[in-house]
């Protein structure tokens, strides 16, 4: 994908969430049950970043945990909603590709259903590099993306986009789609960008950035209409390698 078009999609996604913020928050009023499995990685006293926090719903799985929580999102409207719901918590408008935090700042980073909205390999790597930069050595990144391969409506869009791509009539990359968001009146008010991830592709991205993958798999979500699943990945920021010098009693880091 051309860099300028990828930047256009990043801005479009931000505008899309501004359009759908109220409706999105209404349909995301609680944390999905399968996300509660991710709380097992928390230890008391952790400093936790919710990367792409939306309306702050992930806080529900941490309600009994002794942590320092910070939630960031690039949608001003969603952050406003989050602050209204959880006035005692720390929410900030920020760019996931340029985090306003120092190096080695967080013990854990959670990112739920965000990376599939990031276009191009370049910007996905930048997203992961920023997460890794702000994690402390030994810290964990717990990330999920939609498993779009399970969604019939997404498959139809993928076929259409692939044909356009083969005909050189689409600027999207292969396995990219625009997925419609419908309001309560079934009217399409936004076309959100998504990327169809595979587990293999995710692992490759994380390894390229220098993460150590601890776990990857599928989280199942209950849905009346169809079986929906998410791909999840748990990765660790390695400790710096120590090089033993030839000089006596010295270690280089």
From TrEMBL:
Keywords: Methyltransferase, Transferase. InterPro entries: AlkB_tRNA_MeTrf/Diox (IPR051422), Methyltransf_11 (IPR013216), SAM-dependent_MTases_sf (IPR029063). The keyword Ribonucleoprotein does not apply. GO terms for molecular function: S-adenosylmethionine-dependent methyltransferase activity; tRNA methyltransferase activity. Residues 49-142 form the Methyltransferase type domain. This is Methyltransferase type 11 domain-containing protein. GO terms for biological process: methylation; tRNA modification. It comes from marine sediment metagenome.
């Amino acid at each position: 994908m051309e860099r300028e078009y990828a930047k256009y999609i990043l801005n479009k996604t931000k505008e899309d969430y501004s359009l759908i913020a109220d409706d999105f928050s209404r349909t995301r009023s609680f944390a999905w049950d399968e996300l509660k499995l991710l709380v097992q990685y928390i230890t008391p006293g952790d400093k936790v970043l919710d990367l792409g926090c939306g309306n702050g719903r992930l806080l529900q799985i941490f309600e009994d945990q002794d942590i320092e929580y910070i939630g960031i999102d690039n949608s001003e409207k969603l952050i406003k909603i989050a602050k209204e719901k959880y006035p005692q918590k720390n929410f900030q408008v920020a760019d996931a590709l340029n985090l306003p935090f120092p190096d080695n700042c967080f013990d854990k980073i959670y990112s739920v259903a965000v990376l599939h909205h990031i276009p191009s390999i370049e910007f996905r790597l930048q997203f992961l590099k920023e997460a890794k930069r702000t994690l402390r050595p030994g810290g964990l990144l717990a990330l999920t993306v939609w498993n779009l391969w399970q969604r019939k409506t997404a498959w139809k869009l993928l076929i259409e986009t692939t044909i356009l791509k083969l005909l050189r009539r689409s600027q999207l990359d292969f396995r990219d789609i625009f997925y419609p968001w419908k309001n309560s009146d079934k009217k399409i008010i936004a076309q959100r960008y998504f990327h169809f991830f595979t587990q293999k592709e995710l692992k490759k991205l994380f390894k390229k950035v220098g993460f150590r993958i601890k776990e990857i798999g599928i989280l199942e979500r209950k849905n009346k209409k169809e079986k929906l699943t998410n791909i999840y990945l748990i990765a660790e920021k390695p400790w710096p390698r120590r090089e033993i010098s030839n000089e006596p009693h010295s270690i280089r880091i």
